[in-house]
Amino acid sequence: MAEIKSVGILTSGGDAPGMNAAIRAVTRAAIFSGLRVFGIYRGYQGLIEDHIEEFKTQSVSNIISRGGTILKTARSKDFKTPEGRKLAYENMQKHGIDALVVIGGDGSITGASYLAKEYDLPIVGLPGTIDNDLAGTDATIGYDTAMNTIMECVDKIRDTATSHARLFIVEVMGRDAGFLALNGAIATGCEDVIIPEEKPQYEQLKELVANGFRKSKSSAMVLVTESKDENGGALGLARKMKEEFPDYDVRYTVLGHLQRGGSPTAADRILASRTGYAAIEALLQGQRNVLIGIHNDHIVNIPFAKAIHQEKPIDPELLTVLRVLSI
Ligand code: F6P
User: Fold this and answer.
1) Global pTM?
2) Which residues contact 83 (CB under 8 A, 6 or more apart)?
3) What is the DSSP secondary structure assignment for residue 171, as one 8-state letter?
4) Rounded-to-integer distance, Cα 205 and Cα 170, Å
5) How far apart are CA 8 and CA 26, in angstroms?
6) pLDDT for 163 beyond 70
7) Are strands 250-254 and 99-104 parallel, antiparallel or unpaired?
8) Is the Cα torsion angle 186, 187, 193, 198 positive or negative in sign?
9) What's the CA gap between 200 and 170, in Å, rounded?
10) Phi, psi for 104 (deg, rounded to 5)
11) What is the predicted pLDDT for the residue at 215?
């Protein structure tokens, strides 16, 4: 296996708080080990379009506390084609980039696995997504910050929900995973949660009302994971509730992209720093095509195939905790 002398870093897919801390960690750990570092802008699209710049230690100064990603990000359609990946590989060769660190979610790591396979490249992934939907790792970079943002917002909505004795349906992100909704609901003492892992969704809401949440409470808050189905999500569910229970004062809120912004929490900064450092260690030890994750507070290297497109089950105990405590 050829010696690695230089490494490229990119962030891809939806940005997540803590990506900057990860860029800093990878850059500094690589320079510490004598490697050259190249920052690749706008994810795979920047790799295809040769938007690449050499990074020094100072390139990542004062970014650990900043949300977003200084490298910018993109969801590259071109990279999904073999022609796009060929251009990406050629630009790596042009700059003498021997290895890549890809910071992103399921789609980004899938892209990395294609490139690694087609061109026999050493690539390591860092789990950068607020959705926490990568298997094999207990947490992803950005997840804790997004959950804290959800908590702050839902606490505020509760104030007005209680004042008006209303049922509030609050939609959070997560794509196809209910981690943000479920743990967000526990953290804010919600009356219920509606997540893709549990079905049917509308029946659940009806049950909450039928059981008469008003017997013991003046307001009810339900978190729901976003949905592509127009009858799902906060809007779809609120519409149906209003039709079927006209006596109830139902409102909905979609938290949207504010969940992706803001300064990362300590947990996300530490996770980003640990996994970023471990990514360079893994590459130097000859590991490739692994996602660096965390399990029981230990760094773990997860083969790409075991991290992407995998079921990451919800712990049923969390659902029990939520429902027992919301009586
Ligand atoms: O994957 C992160 C995420 O924020 C998902 O929770 C959400 O479904 C999606 O990205 C939104 O993507 P975009 O910002 O491209 O609309």
Assistant:
1) 0.96
2) none
3) E
4) 13
5) 10
6) yes
7) unpaired
8) negative
9) 18
10) 180, -170
11) 62
Which residue's CA is the closest to the ligand 1 atom numbered 8? 175
Pocket of ligand 1 (CB under 6 A): 14, 105, 129-131, 173-175, 226, 260
| C-beta atoms surrounding 78 within 10 Å | 16
Nearest CA to 150 among 167, 178, 173, 177? Answer: 173
- Number of H helices and number of E strands within the chain? 11, 11
Angle between helices 233-244 and 201-210 (to 10 degrees): 50
Atom of ligand 1 nearest to the CA of 226: 8
Q: What mean pLDDT is predicted for residues 86-115?
A: 97
Residue pair 94/260 in contact (Cβ under 8 Å)? The answer is: no
45: which 2 tokens?
Answer: 């699209």
Is 131 noted as a catalytic residue in this protein?
yes
Query: Do 289 and 157 form a contact (C-beta atoms < 8 A)?
Result: no
Tokens 């339900």 belong to 222
Among residues 106, 131, 133, 268, the one annotated as catalytic is 131
Of 244, 184, 261, residue with least CA distance to 19: 261
Q: Which residue's CA is the closest to the ligand 1 atom numbered 12? A: 14
Going along the chain, which residue ranges are E strands? 6-11, 36-40, 52-55, 99-104, 123-127, 167-172, 192-194, 220-225, 250-254, 290-295, 298-303
Structure tokens at 250: 């139902």
Does residue 214 have a pLDDT over 60?
no
Mutate to test the pocket of ligand 1, among 12, 130, 147, 175 (most ligand atoms within 8 A of CB): 175
Positive or negative CA dihedral for 273, 54, 303, 126?
positive
What does the alpha-carbon distance between residue 262 and residue 296 come to, in Å, rounded to a whole number? 26
Confidence of residue 209 (pLDDT cuts 50, 70, 90): confident
User: Which residue is closest in CA terms to ligand 1's atom 15?
Assistant: 14
